[in-house]
Specification:
- The structure is a single chain.
- This protein is an alpha/beta fold.
- The protein has a single domain, classed as Carbamate kinase.
- The protein is built from 10 helices and 14 strands.
- The protein has helices at residues 3-22, 34-37, 39-54, 66-75, 91-115, 152-159, 182-192, 226-231, 239-251, 267-273; strands spanning 26-31, 58-63, 82-83, 86-87, 120-124, 131-135, 144-149, 163-167, 169-171, 177-179, 197-202, 220-221, 256-261, 280-282.
- An 8-stranded mixed beta sheet has the order 5-8-2-1-11-13-14-12, sandwiched between helices.
- Helix 4 (66-75) crosses helix 5 (91-115).
- It is globular.
Length: 283
């Protein structure tokens, strides 16, 4: 037996208890950032999801697509505008959002999963009223606040062995379509599905005590510690809503929530199937 084969065997032995823990359980993955832009990383992420699905973990993929939306808006001469980290979404913008998220990005991810040996079906919040919403703030336009999640389409697909790929647009009973923050959707969906874990892929290592120093990673955070960390400035800026979504998922019954670096190849596998993990865990 050569060294490489021995190492592979050790990796599988280490992964076994985690495979047993997650077997037949639901894992929600929120996907965005550079891991969506870099094609090699995208293929690695989809391969990880297929592997997890094939070993009996029920994977749900929730995706955003902010950079591609901004690109398409710029092509029609429309400047992107943000308020408190949320995209101001007028009538023209929501049409682009729906087209890019529920159309191009969603179907590209489904196609990639299928080509990697998995089974995926794309959905958005409009399908069978998966995500019902109302206007969050008139000043933001068609940005949605979730009023209800209908988990049946997701559960039906999981029971049939598919990976549901969810684009984060919602709707109301009047036919309006809303752009909804992907972290918010992933958190609420994970809670509704009683997921074992929620993984949020970002462009940083996790929660850092010093945002400029990757070596200050905080590997574990109790929900009760979050207000103190916000007061101390450890959690600040765009990380505040992300952490709030993590906390909301825990309060809705998700056992563990992770923020991990989506720029690292196979970061999902390292977090889910190893002793060490690589990001920040909320519990």
């Amino acid at each position: 037996m050569n060294l490489a084969t021995d190492i592979r065997a050790q990796v599988l032995i280490e992964a076994l208890p985690y495979i047993q823990k997650y077997y037949n359980k639901i894992l929600v993955v929120k996907y965005g950032g550079n891991a969506m832009i870099n094609e090699d990383l995208k293929k690695a992420v989809m391969g990880d999801l297929v592997l997890l699905s094939l070993i009996g973990i029920k994977v749900v993929l929730v995706h955003g697509g902010g950079p591609e939306i901004s690109d398409y808006l710029s092509k029609i001469g429309k400047e992107s505008e943000f308020k408190d980290g949320l995209r101001v979404t007028d009538k023209d913008t929501i049409e682009i959002v729906q087209m890019v998220l529920a159309g191009k990005i969603n179907k590209d991810l489904v196609h990639l999963i299928d080509n990697t040996g998995g089974k995926a079906i794309g959905l958005c919040g409009i399908d069978n009223k998966l995500i019902e919403a109302k206007m969050l703030d008139e000043g933001l336009g068609f940005v949605g606040e979730i009023t209800n999640i209908n988990p049946e389409p997701i559960l039906d697909l999981l029971d049939k062995g598919y990976i549901p790929v969810v684009a984060t647009v919602g709707c109301d009973s009047d036919g309006n379509v809303y752009n909804i923050n992907a972290d918010t959707v992933a958190s609420r969906l994970a809670g509704t599905l009683k997921a074992e874990s929620l993984i949020s892929m970002t462009d940083i290592r996790g929660l850092l005590r010093d945002k400029n120093d990757d070596s200050t990673l905080i590997s574990e955070v109790q929900v009760s510690d979050a207000p103190r960390l916000i007061k101390e400035g450890v959690i600040s800026g765009g990380m505040i809503p992300k952490v709030e979504s993590c906390i909301e998922a825990i309060r809705r019954g998700v056992k563990r929530v992770f923020i991990i670096d989506g720029r690292v190849p196979h970061s999902i596998l390292m977090e889910v199937l190893t002793d060490r993990g690589i990001g920040t865990m909320f519990k």
